[in-house]
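User: Quick sanity check before I run a bigger batch. Here is a single chain. Can you write out its predicted 3D structure?
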Amino acid sequence: MTYTRRPSVAVLFVLAGLLAAGPAGAQRVELVDEAKLPRFEVASVKPGTPGSEARPIDVSPGRLLQDNLPLWNAVSLAFDVRPAQLASPLPDLITREPFTIDARMPVATSARDLKLMLRALLVDRFKLRVHVDPREQDAYALALARRDGRLGPGLRPSQVDCRVRMEAVRRNEPVPPLPEKSKGCAFSAGPGTLDMGGAPIGTLLSVLVGAAGRPVVDRTGLTGTFDVEMQWAPQPAAAGGDTPAADRPSIFTAVKEQLGLSLEAAKTSVDFLVIDHIERPAPD
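Assistant: Done. Predicted structure follows.
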């Protein structure tokens, strides 16, 4: 999924989801009392059509749309977990049957509340019940690669705080002007590429989790926001045959040479989400 260099309001909300996520290495699941979950203003849930075109979940101001996708996509988003954190075996209702969910909420809804609203929809309409199973897993620790703390050319402190800009969007207030020559809140990601601006290290960790294939723990000690540009050889399954792996370094070499950081073997505790119960929803 790729977004343009100059973010629209919708792209700001996509970036908001990344900024709002917890540390990628912690992989913690926050369980909230069902009675206290916020609800969508209105939501439609309909069975999809197996084998027909499906689109990634689309979140824009005031609306969430899951179009003909298996339910594991919504569960992952609602509980802020990677698909790999959904404990096996998963019910067929989650993995095999597509659903279309079209939900509306106030434009000023935060990324966290949006996820909780989706969780409430799953509870109310699908009678979803879950529990958390903490498990120790192999991970990587992201640390400074140089003793002097000097960063690589692809990692630079940013002059922009995208949280401030997104809060202005949510409040329908004027967005602060960008500093001259600033990357702003750019966010472009694809197989083996990352170009983003004004984001904390936690957002970088979220990208590295997918690229490295393990949870990533932040041990850099870096604070503030950063502009990041990086290219690496994507895994064969993600490359799509577009770029030979030999043309780019591995993710580990890219992190070290381009960012001035390192990925080192580590252990961390990961919360797995166990599905205890789920039902097919009643027709709208």
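The helical segments are 9-20, 72-79, 92-95, 111-126, 162-170, 201-212, 236-239, 251-259.

User: Great, the batch can go ahead then.
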